[in-house]
Design a protein that fits this description.
The chain is α/β, with parallel strands linked by helices. It is 22% helix and 30% strand. It has 10 helices and 23 strands. It has helices at residues 38-50, 67-81, 100-110, 137-144, 156-163, 186-195, 226-237, 269-272, 284-293, 337-340; strands at 2-6, 10-16, 23-29, 55-61, 85-91, 118-119, 122-128, 147-149, 170-171, 200-204, 209-212, 217-220, 241-244, 299-301, 305-310, 324-325, 344-351, 355-361, 367-371, 375-382, 388-396, 399-409, 423-426. The strands form 5 sheets. Strands 3, 4, 5, 6, 7, 8, 9, 10 and 13 form a 9-stranded mixed β-sheet that branches. Helix 1 (38-50) crosses helix 2 (67-81), helix 5 runs parallel beside helix 6 (186-195) and helix 7 (226-237) runs parallel beside helix 9 (284-293). The radius of gyration is 21 Å and the shape is globular. It binds 2-acetamido-2-deoxy-beta-D-glucopyranose (5 copies). One 2-acetamido-2-deoxy-beta-D-glucopyranose is lined by residues 180-182, 225, 228-229.
Length: 427
């Protein structure tokens, strides 16, 4: 097979790729799309496709009355978009466990769509959790002929190894680091070992902050370097499939798709409205092409691209909202959130040639950084107590080749609470 990407800013030379195609999907919360029009669903898919994403994993909760209508619209939209695949991801936690018969009926209803993803010639199906229902899967596979890659992360690799004969592969939800360390591939390696040769779907997420007391959720995980660091790990680790968590889970602040106000869960508006993440997608063609070709030498940057992210409120500008760093409910030590969500701007500069990168907060001093190699360069710039609009530039040969501005860092926080979600901008 020949891969040829000819896009706005990366050019990938012809390469022969391995027999099994690699895929990148994004986790799509159907419940948050209940009010989207067919055109909006289609637009989400077109945006994902432009970012080199192969399709969506459609998260469906069994008690949600809108599920079937959205699924029908989504499959129809994907058929119109073309070369964009979907598969079902049964959520066993949000609305409780799915009855076996409904799982079988739902898979069979959509598996004939031309937009359904087939893996090893079987319709791929996944889950969010469902560890109380591991014994349903022999029956589900028999009743549908599906390729089952559940996320049973809470089982842990050892217990999963005992039930892996029930399924065809595994998807891990373990995408975030505990404490200050970068997320390592240790757990991915454990899961690969536990699958014993069956395909592994690796999670990649850019961020995590949730404060939804009605669901007893109020914590954050370190996200500063996740989007760049984790994709570098994907490049080296070369998993069978990647799943981005998520496209539109606004309540947990890890969306990379557009914000539709109707999809924001109650209570999350404060930290989601005004916090676009779309520019994170601008890094995806580069990272996905790197992963799929397994050779960065084949990728040439054809447009200087500068993506930056930061929190809008310095850590002392309001209450911390009683948010903990780490998730104590999962047995992790509670940390001061300020230690995991630092007052810093993070910058990813994709440059054609070595360049100077400039960053400024308000009317403060200009920070000069050196992007020493063509391709990806990452930086961090502490707030240093400054507030105001942010400005960025890439300079080369005494010429400005890229310019960008970002929203003001401000001590005025909505409802008096520090917003621990990121804003993302780009040129
Ligand atoms: C899908 O991709 C194939 C191969 O790249 C191409 O020939 C075909 O035209 C595409 N179809 C659509 C609907 O974009
Ligand atoms: C995975 O298995 C290999 C081979 O048995 C072993 O060397 C390695 O330590 C295991 N990795 C993890 C993280 O368990
Ligand atoms: C995490 O990795 C990034 C590079 O991806 C590095 O700059 C940073 O220092 C690392 N953080 C820690 C705590 O090791
Ligand atoms: C939190 O804010 C204080 C006051 O501006 C600052 O000195 C400190 O560096 C910040 N902490 C972190 C971890 O960024
Ligand atoms: C910051 O940017 C906004 C939007 O572009 C603009 O309205 C505002 O005047 C700027 N503030 C300062 C202090 O430059």
């Amino acid at each position: 097979m020949i891969l040829l990407f000819l896009l706005s800013y990366v050019f990938v030379f012809n390469v022969a790729v391995a027999a099994m195609p690699k895929y990148v999907f994004a986790h799509y919360i159907v419940g948050n799309a209940a009010k989207l029009t067919p055109d909006q669903l289609q637009s989400d898919m077109e945006l994902a496709k432009q970012a080199f994403i192969d399709g969506f994993a459609l998260n469906i909760a069994q008690q949600d009355p809108s599920t079937d209508a959205v699924l029908q619209n989504a499959y129809a939209a994907a058929e119109r978009v073309g070369n964009f695949s979907l598969f079902l991801s049964f959520d066993y936690l949000s609305g409780g466990p799915w009855p076996v018969d409904r799982v079988i009926d739902t898979i069979n209803r959509y598996k004939t769509s031309p937009a359904q993803l087939y893996y090893e010639r079987k319709p791929l199906v996944s889950t969010f959790e469902g560890v109380g229902n591991v014994d349903d899967w022999p029956r589900i596979r028999e009743g549908t002929g599906c390729f089952a890659m559940p996320d049973w992360t809470s089982l842990g690799p050892e217990r999963f190894a005992n039930v892996r004969d029930n399924v065809d592969g595994f998807f891990s939800w373990d995408a975030w680091p505990v404490g200050k360390a970068n997320k390592s591939i240790h757990n991915d390696q454990e899961w690969v070992n536990a699958t014993a040769g069956k395909p592994y779907m690796m999670p990649v997420s850019p961020w995590f902050y949730t404060n939804l007391p009605q669901w007893n959720k109020n914590w954050l995980w370190e996200g500063a370097h996740l989007w760049t660091h984790r994709w570098e790990e994907v490049y080296h680790f070369q998993p069978d499939i990647v799943q981005i968590i998520s496209w539109n889970d606004y309540g947990e602040s890890h969306y990379i798709g557009p914000i539709y106000p109707d999809g924001i869960p109650q209570g999350a508006e404060r930290y989601v409205q005004g916090n676009p993440h779309d520019p994170w997608r601008k890094l995806l063609p580069y990272y996905i092409a790197s992963y799929k070709t397994a050779s960065k030498a084949r990728i040439r940057v054809t447009r200087d691209t500068l993506v930056f992210w930061y929190r809008l409120n310095p850590n002392d500008s309001g209450s911390n909202g009683e948010t903990t760093g780490n998730c104590p409910q999962q047995g992790q030590p509670a940390m001061d959130p300020r230690l995991l969500a630092e007052d810093k701007i993070y910058i990813a500069a994709l440059v054609k040639e070595p360049s100077i990168v400039l960053a400024q907060i308000g009317a403060g001093p200009v920070t000069e950084l050196f992007a020493s190699r063509s391709g990806m360069n990452t930086f961090e710039v502490p707030f240093g107590g400054q507030t105001g609009n942010t400005t960025f530039a890439i300079l080369r040969d005494d010429r400005e080749v890229a310019y960008a501005t970002g929203p003001a860092i401000t001590k005025q926080c909505v409802d008096g609470k520090v917003n621990w979600n990121a804003v993302v901008g780009s040129n």
